[in-house]
Amino acid sequence: MNFILARSSEPVPVVAACLAKVMEAALRPVPADFPDDELMRALDDPDVVLGVVGNDDGVWKVLRRCSIPLVVVPPRTAGEYGLGRVLVPLDGTEEAAHAVSATVRLLGAGGVEIVVLHVFDRTTVPAHWDQAAHARDAWESEFVARFCNPYFPGLRQTMTLRSGVAGDTIVDVAAEQADMIVLGVSRQLLPGHAESVRTAVAAASVPVMVVPIGDR
Hints:
This protein is an alpha/beta fold. Helices cover 36% and strands 24% of the residues. It is built from seven helices and nine strands. Strand 1, helix 1 and strand 2 form a beta-alpha-beta unit. Helix 6 packs parallel to helix 7. The longest helix has 16 residues.
C-alpha cells in the first residue's frame, strides 16, 4: 500500500486527508515536533509516495533533501479544504513536464482538474505575437501537443497563458483558479536558484507540491 506521510501541525491534517482520498493512499501521521532528520528517514521509506508539511522555518532544509513530492501547506489554508483543481506551471521543457507527469496523472485519475500555466517574459514571448489573430491559438495548440498530451493523456485539462514574472504570476493565478500548485524543480534550492519555487512556497495562498526532478 502507498502512504502519505504528514507532519501534523495545523492545517496539515485536512490537506493530507484530502490528498489521501484523491490518491487512494493511507495516511501515516507523525507529530508536529517530529525532527527533520527523522522526517527525512521516514520519507525515504519506499512505501511513502508523498510528504505533507507545514510552511515553517525548516521547510527549505527538508525540500532540499527530499527525493519524493512534498506538499508545503501555508498556515492560512482554509479549514474545509477541497482539491478540485491543481495549477501545473510548465516552462516549455520536456524535463519539467516529465518531472510532474506521474503525479499529475495520479491526481487527474482521482477526478482533479488540471490547469496548465505557461508564463512568458520579455525574452520568451513569440515574435509577432500581437500581429497575427491566430498566433495565440496556434502557439497554444503546439504547446499542448508537445508538453501536455504526451505527459497527461486523457486528463481533463485547460491551458492558461500569462506574461510577467513567473513566480508572482504563478501565485496570482493559483489564487484565482486552483486549490494547489504542482511544481517540478531540481534540488538546487539555495538562494539564487529556483526563484519561481521559492516565491510560490513563500507567497501562495494554497498548498504547493514540489516534485524533485530526476529523483524517486
